[in-house]
Amino acid sequence: MCQCLDSSRIWETVTDDHWVLHSVSEGIKLDFVGTPKQTRLPCPVAMSEEMASVCDREVNQLLVKKTIVKISNSGKDDLSVRYL
């Protein structure tokens, strides 16, 4: 997202489509019909030690950039494998 925002002026030379230019400069908001529910924790993803290290490094970079934030699970929240 940050790279798109930094280069949003360049997009104006590529297209004059309002939706594309707005999406690149402001981002896209998705409205969902309802809140998805996941009633149990997903099975752990099997990966090598090297891949786990790569994933940890990527997650740490996202935390530093404040693209994501760390939360604690109280057990009351719905969890999705997409965010674990």
Describe the protein's architecture and organization.
The protein has one domain (2-28, 44-83). Helices cover 44% and strands 0% of the residues. It contains four helices and no strands. The protein has helices at residues 2-6, 8-14, 18-26, 49-64. The mean pLDDT is 80.
Provide a brief overview of the structure:
With 84 residues, this protein is mostly helical. It has helices at residues 2-6, 8-14, 18-26, 49-64.
What does the secondary structure layout of this molecule look like, with pairings?
Layout: H1 2-6, H2 8-14, H3 18-26, H4 49-64
The SSE string, one letter per element, is: HHHH
Rg over CA atoms, rounded to whole Å, is: 18 Å
Helix proportion: 40-55%
Helix segment count?
4
Beta fraction:
under 5%
How far do the termini sit from each other? 20 Å
- Total individual domains: 1
Low-confidence stretches: none
> What spatial form do the alpha-carbon principal axes imply?
extended
In total, the number of strands is 0
Q: Taking all residues together, what is the mean pLDDT?
A: 80
What characterizes the major β-sheet? none
Helical/strand content category: mainly alpha
Give me some keywords for this one.
84 residues, mainly alpha, 4 helices, extended
